[in-house]
Design goal:
The protein has 445 residues and is of the alpha/beta class. It has 3 domains: 230 residues, Aldolase class I (TIM Barrel), CATH 3.20.20; 97 residues, 3-Layer(aba) Sandwich (Rossmann fold), CATH 3.40.50.300; 74 residues, Orthogonal Bundle (Helicase, Ruva Protein, domain 3). The strands form 3 sheets. The protein has a 7-stranded parallel beta sheet. A 3-stranded parallel beta sheet has the order 8-9-10, covered by helices on one side. A two-stranded parallel sheet has the order 11-12. Strand 2, helix 4 and strand 3 form a beta-alpha-beta unit. Helix 1 crosses helix 3 and helix 18 packs across helix 19. The longest helix is centred in the middle third of the chain and has 25 residues. The protein is globular, with a radius of gyration of 26 Å.
Length: 445
């Protein structure tokens, strides 16, 4: 039996959009699926394995599959994830989605219970036998604590002709070579991690089940094509652009027990190192490292020492970015050249940038920016930060609801005129900060 062609290429694990009341936004789901196919994706995998799939009702799952099958028609296959806590429910779901027009299945181990091969094998066999649809095995031992070994995968491939592919998410690139050695070209191999696609294609993978495609569909398809056709050298620049972004929240690190805060920081930094290459983002770093003497029992000093040691000794490719609203509160040893490569001063947005910010936040709230006078809004919001622009839109939405009107340029302008931005309320400090930054930093907008 020849493997289905749709296993090759970029297949998004599509997110499930929800409305404010928690119900599924089927209209958005349909639009989003077509946008992904327009970008060059070769299929759609709904019913995410660990999030949506485990929290949605059986009826909601079927409604999602039905929406997607109707939305994309023959343009690309819908390949639902078959995940359930029991084998009986998984078989029931398999038969139901097949009847709705699904053209493939992503087969998962059972939820909740970490099974051995005897139990997992019986579960998987029941799903595969319940339908003639082509199946892709999903191996994610980090999440399920259950590992499909290459030998077990090969046995399933020999036994069931409709087992056509494997989504390999163990994190061990050697698995691709091991599976290929046992089955040859019998199975299509797909990378199941966003940050291993270049390496996976180099090891023999032919497809990619990815999450980041939801946000960057065209860029993700381009990355796949560059890596497939030209290898690492061709894809390197775009691949670096996709580096994982990790946010370090200092507020979550601090602990009342002696030594626990430093240990929490070391654990967080070790996690970043394990995910390298990645970007480690520290927002408002002065809140966690401000030089406040011994007022906190020396915790902030010990945290600083831990961080400085890591910065000087780390070997992994962890690119660190930090923001600070009050740089005067940071210890000087953190600011010297060699700790951070550069210090940027990001001023309040100019008029062109403000116009873009208005468009972004209007669209985010499902308002067509073309219906608004963005030029007038941007001109009126001089001195506003991006957060203040967003709040002006939020406040004007409340006002529109109160007066039973559609949101309009006039309502937003009224809110802007009634707002005193921080650049006015704290004008002297803003001017002093600009003067300090003029000769000491790289200016940015």
């Amino acid at each position: 039996m020849a493997n289905s062609a749709f296993w090759r290429g970029v297949i998004p694990a599509i997110t499930t959009p929800l409305k404010a009341d928690g119900s599924i936004d089927h209209e958005f789901l349909a639009r989003h699926a077509n946008l992904l196919i327009d970008a060059g994706c070769t299929g759609i995998v709904p019913l995410g394995s660990l999030g949506e799939g485990g929290s949605m009702s059986f009826e909601e799952k079927l409604a999602i599959v039905e929406t997607l099958v109707k939305a994309i028609g023959d343009r690309a296959p819908v390949i639902p994830g078959i995940g359930a806590a029991t084998t009986a429910e998984a078989v029931k779901l398999t038969r139901a989605v097949a009847a709705l027009g699904a053209r493939g299945l992503m087969v998962l181990p059972p939820y909740v219970y970490s099974s051995d091969w005897h139990e997992m094998g019986a579960h998987v066999r029941a799903i595969v036998e319940a339908s003639e649809l082509p199946c892709m095995l999903y191996n994610n031992p980090g999440a399920y604590k259950t590992d499909f070994s290459p030998a077990q995968i090969a046995w399933l491939a020999r036994t069931y002709p409709n087992v056509e592919a494997v989504k390999e998410t163990s994190g061990d690139i050697r698995r691709f070579s091991e599976i290929r050695e046992l089955v040859g070209d019998r199975l299509e191999l797909l990378v199941g991690m966003d940050n291993a696609i270049v390496e996976g294609l180099g090891a023999g993978a032919t497809g990619w089940i990815a999450g980041q495609v939801n946000a960057y569909p065209k860029e993700s398809v381009r990355l796949f094509e560059l890596a497939r056709d030209g290898g690492w050298k061709a894809a390197a620049d775009l691949y670096r652009w996709f580096l994982p972004l990790l946010r370090l929240d200092f507020g979550a690190l601090y602990n009342k027990y002696h030594g626990e805060t430093e240990r929490n920081l070391r654990d967080a930094l070790d996690t970043a190192g394990a995910m390298a290459p990645c970007v480690l983002w520290m927002d408002e770093i002065e809140k966690g490292l401000a030089s406040g003497g011994d007022g906190d029992g020396g915790v902030s000093r010990r945290v600083l020492a831990t961080l400085l040691t890591w910065m000087s000794e780390r070997r992994g490719r962890v690119f660190m970015v930090a923001t600070a609203n009050d740089i005067s509160g940071l210890p000087p040893e953190l600011l010297r050249k060699g700790r951070f490569d550069e210090i940027f001063f990001v001023d309040l947005p100019g008029e062109a940038v403000r116009r873009e910010i208005f468009a972004i936040h209007l669209a985010k709230r499902r308002r067509d920016p073309a219906r608004f006078d963005l030029e007038a809004l941007a001109a009126a919001a001089g001195g506003f930060s991006g957060a203040e622009i967003e709040q002006a839109i939020v406040a004007s939405l409340y006002e529109a609801h109160a007066v039973r009107q559609e949101l309009s340029t006039e309502l937003v302008l009224a809110e802007i005129r009634g707002t005193k931005p921080l650049s006015v309320v704290r004008a002297e400090e803003v001017l002093a900060l600009r003067a300090w930054a003029a000769e000491r930093t790289v200016l940015a907008d």
